Request: fold
Amino acid sequence: MEYFIKMLGITKSPPGVKFSEIIWSWVGGFLGIFPVAYMNYFLFEKSDYVFIIGSFGASAVLIYGAIRSPLAQPRNLVGGHVISAVIGVAVYKLFFWHMGLASAIAVATAIALMHATKTLHPPGGATALIAVIGSDKIHNLEFYYALVPVGSGAIIMLLIALAINNISSRRRYPEFWI
Reply:
C-alpha cells in the first residue's frame, strides 16, 4: 500500500506564471528554433545535412520556459545533447540489427552518462533515440551527428537563450555554467 501512496504526491501544483513570463518564453522559443529550422529547410534542404531534430523542441521548453531549472543550464543543454548523440550513434552501430534493443540501450546509457557527467538534460534521451530510430539521413551522418545537427544546434539555441533571457530585468540566465 505504501508503494501506491507515494504516487499521490506530496505537494500542490505550483502557481502559474505571469503573462510577461509567457511572452518571454514564447519569444525565446520562436527565436531559438527559427534559425535552426531555417538552416535545415532553406540552406541545407538539398543536401544530406540535417540541422534540426525533434529533441530541440523539448530543449526550447527548458531553456526559454524553465530557465532556472538545473536541467536547463548551458552545461546540461550542450553536454547532455552531445553525450547522448555520441551514445546513440555508437549503440546504433553496434545493435542496428535489433532496433528495440538499440533504442533501449541508447536511452538508458545516455541517462547514465548524463548523470555521471552532471549534464542531465531530458531532451538528451530523445537525441540518443533519434540517432537510433532516425532516417537514413541521420544514420549517414554517423558521429558527425554529434556536431551537426546536435552540437551546433544546441550552441545556437544557447546563444539565443543568453540574449533573450537576460533582456528582462526579471529574468536571468544561466544560473550556473559549470
In short: Residues 19-43+51-164 form one domain.
